[in-house]
Amino acid sequence: MNNQQIAQIFYEIAEILEMQDVKFKPFAYRKAAQSIEALTRDIKEIYKEGKLRDIPGVGESISKKIEELIKTGKLKAYEKLKKKMPVNLQELGSIQGMGPKTIKKLYQKLKIKNLKELERAAKLGKIRKLEGLGEKREEEILENIGFKKKTGKRFLLGLILPEAEAIKNALNQLKEVKKIELTGSLRRMKETIGDVDILAVSADPGKTMDFFAKMNDVEKVLVKGLTKSSIRLRSGINADIRLVPLNSFGSALQYMTGNKSHNIKLRNIAKDKGLKLSEYGIFKGNKQVSGKTEEEVYRKLGLRYIEPELREDTGEIDAAKKNKLPDLINYNDVKGDLQMHTNYSDGNNTVLEMAQYAKKIGHKFIAITDHAGNLKIAGGMTAREITAQGKEINKIKSIKVFHGIEANIQKNGAIDVPDNILKDIDVVIAAIHSGFKQDKTTITNRLLTAMDNKHVNIIAHPTGRLLLKRKGYEFDLQKVFDKARERGIALEINAFPDRLDLDSDKVRLAVENKVKLSIGTDAHSKEQLDFYRLGIAVARRGWANKNDIINAYSIDKLEKFLKR
DNA sequence: GCCGTTTTCGGCCCGACTGTTTTCAGTCG
After folding, report:
1. Which region holds residue A172: left if phi is over 0, alpha if psi is between -120 and 50, else beta?
2. For residue A144, which nucleotide's C1' is closest to its Cα?
3. Cβ of residue A101 near strand B, that is under 7 Å?
4. CB of A63 under 7 A from strand B?
């Protein structure tokens, strides 16, 4: 039973209780499930320490249920509920428009238990005959099943951000649009995005909504009103827009940026102060006392301004109250990029082209880190090629270029490039590229052995995960942190859109452990150097300040770090 | 079921849109 599985059971309990019209309990179970999901430690450890009730939303009853789950792997209360409602909630609930009440009705009237049965019933026209449902709902269900089958539910931040920014810019061209921002998980720079949320102020809502619904990329209009509209883009992602009065822009921006539990906490703070917070502002009775800017909203609630990337309800509100928010690294603090590839291995551009583009986007330095050693598929360089590349790098004067390589950590932890080559390399990146299926202890030792190599500077994409594809291997994080700190090795925040590895939770732990981090785009073409801001976003979401990130160092300081 | 610098009992975030309704329930964010 891991954290996610336990959380899932509580989500399902919430759902079933909601079907039974039980008041308030669903909210409590959902809250507990969210907290458990957000834990950065194994809940079993917390249980062993007897500290389950320190988890927000976990009280007497839920802590006992967690104990039962850990001890027996089962939960009697859950199984009892499940008997009354033996349906695949996760599956049915993942279809847009299917909430607890509809699921319940469909089970009671048509015995629908899963997606397959739902699809069959819809195709046979059985759903439209039920009271409270109709033809349109039936069509909607069928369509959403089709949508679910076609795409996964989430999209990579790095791929959606440019598309969303293009939409924002197009809308911003309209003269009646006075203000516009991307909001939601995009603004929080979450690694994957469920949909695109846009907030705007418009002097002509009708015209703005018409434009929004008729843009080139629109596949289907889902909802269209004067304050709120929703479309599906050809790329498969949904985009929502909300129009509000200028006086409410700040509170609406706050509200739409979320996340949900961050917002709920803020509303509770407002309430404790005798105020009411909604997307339209902060109200005292009927009088609006705040809402034009986000800064003002936080101030009115007695909080320091909280950067969007931190708004995940993981301690930031408390920190804002106590004036203990981190001094986050800024997007312009990063002065260079510490992982990229050229045509010496599997990249598309030359050393010079990479350097020129890096200069253009404002970098002061880069490290060229082509594959070396025995990774043949990625065109690992030979000793002779490494020397030739070094000469080419030395010719570049417009920007500081470090000569690096990306070497492989072999199954026994050895680096597959000999020391006599490594000793002349400025930046040695080591990474695991094979043997992902080894057990936790083996991988841990492998990483620790690699970090004992006296030339290694950076461990790249430390967990090996690929977003929406591969989970990544497990290892003892604490041991690797300790070794990195002792040995003066940085752990990478790989900024390639489907990696973002380390992730922000692990970055936060690394920062707490005083481990240095490096940002590398892993660019294989010059345009991909733009991904560096995704890496900064991960750092910010991990509460890092600029001293934690070696890319924010001056060149002198960075050179010292690299010489260890 | 959880929780408390106004509470150990009495509250629990708030509003828009749609479909199937003739006054509103359900879903979503």
Report:
1. alpha
2. B27
3. yes
4. yes
Of A91, A53, A65, nearest to A1 by C-alpha is A65
Closest amino acid to nucleotide B7 (CA–C1'): A272
Tell me, what's the pLDDT at A541? 96
CA–CA gap between residue A212 and residue A230 (Å, rounded): 9
> How far apart (Å, rounded) are the C-alpha atoms in residues A330 and A338?
17
State CA A132 to chain mean position distance.
38
Provide block-wise average pLDDT over 10 residues at a time, chain A (564 residues). Answer: 85 88 85 78 87 87 93 92 88 83 90 90 88 85 78 79 91 95 94 92 94 89 91 86 94 92 90 89 89 93 94 92 95 96 85 94 95 66 86 94 92 86 92 80 91 94 81 88 96 93 94 97 88 96 97 96 89
Rounded distance, CA A304 to CA A301, Å?
9
Segment (H or E) for A278: strand A276-278
pTM: 0.77
- For the CA of A259 and the C1' of B9, the distance in angstroms is 30
Type of residue found at A441? T
**Rounded Cα gap, residues A55 and A213, in angstroms:** 44
- CB count in 10 Å sphere of residue A246: 13
Amino acid, single-letter form, for residue A272: D
Query: Measuring from the CA of residue A17 to each C1', which nucleotide is nearest?
Result: B1
Strand B closer than 7 A to residue A122 Cβ: no
Residue A196 has a pLDDT of: 93
- Concatenating the DSSP letter of every residue in A88-152 gives -HHHHHTSTT--HHHHHHHHHHH---SHHHHHHHHHTT-GGGSTT--HHHHHHHHHHHHHHHHS-
- Asked whether residue A276, judged by its CB, lies under 7 Å from any atom of the DNA or RNA strand B, the reply is yes
Prior bond of A246 cis (ω within 30°): no
Token pair 């839920």 is found at A62
Q: In angstroms, rounded to a whole number, what is the distance separating the alpha carbons of residues A155 and A236?
A: 9
- Cα torsion for A103, A108, A111, A116, to the nearest 10°? -10
Residue with CA nearest B20 C1'? Answer: A132
Locate A223 and state its tokens: 């909802």
Note whether A269 and A318 are within 8 A (CB).
no
pLDDT given for residue A470 in this prediction: 67
Residues 6+ apart with CB under 8 A from A467: A156, A191, A192, A497, A498, A499, A500
